[in-house]
Every structure is written in structure tokens, then in C-alpha cells.
Amino acid sequence: MGWLPEAASTFADSIDGIFYLILAITGVIFVGVEAVLLWFAVKYRHREGRKAYHTHGNIRVEVVWTALPAVLVVLIGVLSIRPWLHIRSPDSIPPEAYAVDMTAKQFEWNASYVGPDGAMGTDDDVTQRNQLHIPVGRPVVVMLRSEDVIHSFFLPEFRVKQDAVPGMETAVWFQATRTGEFNLACAELCGTGHTRMGGRVIVYSADDFDAWLLAEGAGPPLGARLASSTDQP
Amino acid sequence: MATTLTEHAPHADAHHHELSFVRKYIFSEDHKIIGIQFLFMSLFFLLVGGLLAAIMRWQLAYPTDAANPLPGGGLFPETMVNNGIILPEFYNSAVTMHGTIMIFFAIMPLLVGVFANYLIPLQIGAPDMAFPKLNMASFWTAFPAGLIMLAGFFVEGGHSSAGWTQYAPLSADPEWTGVYAGQRLWLISMIILGFASLMGAVNYITTVINMRAPGMTWFRIPLPTWALFITAILILLAIPVLTGALIMLLFDQTIGTTFFASATGGEPLLWQHMFWFFGHPEVYILILPGMGFVSEIIAAGSRKPIFGYAAMVLAIIAIAFIGWLVWGHHMFQSGMNPMLGMSFMVTTMIIAVPSAIKVFNWLGTMWRGDLHFHTPMLHAVAFVAMFVIGGLSGVFVASTPVDIFLHDTYFVVAHIHYVLFGGSLFAIFGAITFWYPKMFGRMMNSTLGKIHFWLTLIFFNLVFFPMHNLGIAGMMRRIYDFTQYEYLAPFQGLQLFISWSAFVLIGAQFIFAFNFLYSLFRGEKAPQNPWHANSLEWTAAPSPPPHGNFAHTPTVYRGPYEYSHPDTPGDYWPQNEPGPAAPAPEPVYAE
Q1: Considering the domain boundaries, does residue B395 fall inside one?
Q2: Where residue A169 falls among pLDDT bands split at 50, 70, 90?
Q3: Alpha-carbon gap: A151 to the closest alpha carbon of chain B (Å)
Q4: Quick one: which H or E segment has residue A186?
Q5: Which terminus of chain B faces fewer neighbouring Cβ atoms within 10 Å, N or C?
Q6: Any chain A CB within 8 A of the CB of B479?
Q7: Which domains occur in chain A, in start order?
């Protein structure tokens, strides 16, 4: 049976935590309501001579069963706010995050890494299709765009999903917690080839990532970039 | 006509004997015939939508598997099914058209076109709708819209494949899907259908406000009519937004405007805002009437007054009102400002409260009742059981962080089907079996009804419950071949299981179809009031009621749910039976 994919990003703790909290709360309500429903269905089924009890309601119990769900859903809402802002607020993106440009189009993901000149958007950028290479343990920010229709950038193990909307640039940040290969999927119906718009995320240790950058002819090693970004205020 | 009128002046139905077949059954102005016309049309579309689901399920059971060709695949042109393999173009069309047809041409007309037309005048004691000709025009506008929608399957390039939500720019430019005529027919059909809905809505609202029988005060109106009245207001306000958006999209498609195309200054998210500003009220258009039917059936089946009638009415109104403030929860991952997402999350959480009130009040209605589990009651109780699941799964996707993961996965597919099938469609089956004797003067077969019910309940759950798991595992919805993804390939066994359960589920619906058609001719003759219910359609009109409904305008003395009242000998007390008004409600803290 399906369950949450094994987590690989720092967001998983809070997202999975709320998921399990909601599962517990709704699970108890589900079992309780269905049990009462079944119990009533059996206990009060028609028998010869039974007469139903005539009542139009009871304000006291109605107030209770209005207030209780209200408290629970407000609780869930309040607990959701902090992780949501941590993940999505532009202010939450760590300034030292390693930036990758990601341009979606029918039916591929093109990831661009800064070239040796250290500036994004220049001729020496390195672009690779359907692969996203990132370092472990460092925040990464993906600048998401689309050339044609809406796609959705989905990293199941990272608990990341963000639509790529043509005409918009959306920053998505996350931080990998382990090295290895993970899935990149398109989650928004984008045309005939939607089904094959998948890719891989390859997470390296810091040293391996620098080695990969070097091998691909991409930008300055990560260690150097971090040092230079902390030098400047 | 003048002589006829003088001869039969007291009778509202005086002139109906003279109607020709065409005026009586085809271009009819009788709200009951129009309701039945919608019934046949929408049951046909329910079948079409089900077959489209079967095509999708075949592909998901045997993804691109030449060893298991689609049965009957040879009937399709090679641009749809090639050597028994469903092509991705056709799969995307099937996804799109299953959603479109089920929502707009099956569930919505079944709930509103059928029952708002059939029930409202009968339940409020009116001879017909306020505007009978407009009512006729409503059906005869919906009908060509349906034909145009069907025509889309037969044009070159196939039918629309941009999803029932028609997200721009995918839907705005044929370049992205390869669908030309089909996409335009989709838009034209939907625009026309919108006008049919508006004509109906104006009629229902006017009728409920102006044509209630003497004594039918607002708080004596049966809950189906309350729900349909509020639904009609939602339709009146929501459909024009959709129609406006559709016209803009049609212009983008045909005359080169760029409302939704970003390359030339348009805004793709504008479509989503307009679509969901209509689309979320639409969700409540699709559930509120069902809640009304279920309330009626559970009260009559339990022989008890509705627990908290006023709370039920207020909950309907609250859901309808808050329903306008939640549309952004469909757009949490769209790139919309996260602060906006946060406020939509709060309103979405709040709308769970009136839904919970309704569930608890249904349980309260059954409590210490005398439960008669006839077929309509089984469907109504199943509605409550399934709606609980659909409501609770909604809490997961309402939480913005959890929605990041679950958005656009099978979890959402499971959620929508627990609400629209487990909810709305069970309510529809309950309502059809409940009001069938009134509509056609015959009972549906109870044994066949119960076999259909149990098969549907069991296989519905076998189909849709595991979809929660697929979603939690991260399987995207609307994926033609999930085995292309390494992490999803292991779910082929579960998909196969779901598909075969779906085939049984679809097959079981033919039992209902047979029962429906067989009982039209061979069903047991129905008495006027087979369920011993209180409302006027049962207590003041024969089965089926004649044109004009009531021989004399009924007078209403009490609310519709006075079952098992201690002051009456039987266990029901018709709304129109003269006698003392019901005593004041018992003291509030009686329990």
C-alpha cells in the first residue's frame, strides 16, 4: 500500500507532522462517527411496535457539536501557518541559497547552473535537461519559469510542489537532507506528453557537488561562493 | 379555451386534456415533465461519463500494454486507439470529458434540472413554476448544449483535452494540445448550457419566493426545497462568472485576443481565479441539493422530525455564503501570493463547521428513531457515511503545507469522488428511488434496488478508498502512464485492482438502469404516499400529479417533519391536515 515517500528534505518534518496530526484527528472523528452511525442503524432499526421519540433537537448538544469542530479546524489552521510561511514566504528564502534556474516547457525540465563567470543568465551557464544536481545540507533556490503552458515542479521525496506559470518567475527553496537520486515529476496536466515529463534529482555531498560543477564546466565551487557571499554585507 | 375555462373554472388543470402529444411530452411547460426530460437526458450522460471512466481505467490497469488491448478498441479511429492501445491524446480527452460530462451534464442536471423542477412547485403547493415557458426554454437550451458537447468526440483532432478545469494557456491555444474544433465545441456548449442553468435558476428563485401555498412559511419549507432555493441563488451568481471566462477563452481561441496568454500580456492565473470563483460555489451547487434530499429521506425513514431543522437551514445558508470565500484553496500551489493562501486556508477550515453540523444533525435524527431501511433510506445513510470521508479528507488538502504534497495527486481524486459520488450520486440514487413513485406512479423494485445499493457501496469504496493511498504515495492525477515514473511503477497491482473494481461498479449501474426502465412499465402501482411522508407532494397530490398538480390549492398548517408526534395516532402528520397547529417546541433543555 502506498505511503508517504521516504523523506529527503528539511520540509518533510513539518509537513509530515501536520499530515499525521490531521490523520489522527480525522481518524478519531471518522471511526467515532461511522461507529455511531452503524450503532444507531442497528439499535433503532424498525421493530414491530416501536415508536420513534419525537424531538426537534436540543440547543445544548448542537452548540457543543458546532464548537468542537470549529476549535479543531482552527487549531489545524493555526498549526499550518508557520510551516507554510517557512516554506513559501519570499522572506524565508535563505540569502546564501544556491540558485538554479529551471525552465519548463512541453515536455522537459531545463536546469541552468551559473557558469564560471559567477553570473546567471550569461552565455557560459550550463544547462541540463531533466536532471537537477544539488548539494546536500545547503539551501537551494530554484527559479521556476515556463515557456509555454503551466507545468508543476514536483519533488515527492522533498515535499516540494510549485506550479511553473508562463510569464511568472517563482522562487522555490528547499534543503536536501541526504545524498542520492530522487524523483522530479510534472504534476499539472500540460499536454499529450505530460506523462513523460519526469526527471531525476541528484543530491551530492558538498565536495562531490563541487567536483560535479568542475566536471561540467559550471560556476565557481560552492565553498568559494558561500565564502564570497558571506564576505559581502 | 374560453368555454373550457368556464366549464372547469375551479380546477387549475382545466385545460391540460386538450394538449397534443408534442405539447404534453416534448415542448412541455409542465414542470414535472421538464424535470423528467432532464432525468432521461442526465441519466444518458451519466452512462457516457461512466464509459469514459472505464476507458481511463483500462489504460491505468494495463498501461500501454499491447497484450491487453482495449475491448472494442477497434471501434475507435486510429487517432484515438491504435492496435488496442489507448493513445495519450485520447486518454487526456477521456479525463477531460469524464469530468466535464459528469459534473455539468450528469450530476448538476440530476440534482437541479430534475429535482428543482420536479419538487419545488409540489413541495410548496404551487400549480407550476412562475415562468413555465422559460422553464421549457431551459430544457431546450440544455439539450442542444448536450448535442454540441457530444459532437466534439467526432471532429478531427478529438475532443478537448485540457482537463475539465481548462487551465489556460493549455486551453487557450490549439498549438499546445493539437485540439482545434473539439476545444471550441467544448466552449460553445458550456456557454449555451450556462444560459439554460440561468433560466432555471431565475425560475426556481421566483417560484419559491412568490408561489408558496397559504401557510407555507419560510420555516415550514421542506429541506430539499430550501437547499434547491439556495443552490439556485448560487447558480444565478456563479454561472455568469464562468460564462464570462468561457467567452474570453473562446475569443483567445478564435479571434486572437490574449486574455490568458502571458507571451502577449495576458495572465494565466486570471483564468484560475475566474474559474474557481465559479468553481467553488459549483462544488456546493453539487452537494447542497443532495443534503436536502438526504434530510428528507432520513426524516421519513427514521419516522422522526429533523434534528435541528433551523440549524440545518442556517447551515445551508452558511455553506453557500462562505463558499464564495474559499476559491483560492484550489490555487495554493499556483504561485499565488502565500499570504493570500493563508487567508483562504482559514476560510476553508471554517466551512467544515456547517458541514459537520449537518452530519451530526442527521445522526441526531436517526437517534431513537424507528428506522425503515428501504432503498432510498439505504442510499441516504450511505450518503452520510461517505460524505464524512469526503469531508474529512478535505481537511488534509485545506492545510496549505500538507496540500503542497497532496495537491494534484490521486488524494484529490479520492476526495472529489467521495463528495461527488459517495455524496451527490448516492443522494441522487436515494432521491430517484424515493420520488420515482410520485413521478411515474409505480414503485421501483426493492430487491433490485438493494442489490444495486450494496454492490455500488462496496465497489465504490474498493475503487476510491485506495486512491487515498496512491495520492499519499505521490501519484499525480491525470497521468496517462504512471509506470514511466520509477517510484510509481510498483503501484501497478493496486491500479489493476482499482480498475477491475471500477468495472464491477460500472456494471452494477446497469442493474439500476434495468430497474428504472422495467419499473416504468411493470413496477408495482404506487399509492399516493408510499413512504408515509408529510410534505405536500405526497399528501395533497396523486401519483403522478396531473398538470396543475393540486385539485385545490393546499393550505399548510405545520412544518414538514412532524413524525411520531405524541398528539397524533399515526406516526406522521401531513402538512396540509387541518387541526391544531403543532404545539410549541419542547423546552430547550428537555434532555
Answers
A1: no
A2: very high
A3: 10
A4: strand A180-186
A5: N
A6: yes
A7: 12-90 (1.10.287.90), 95-231 (2.60.40.420)
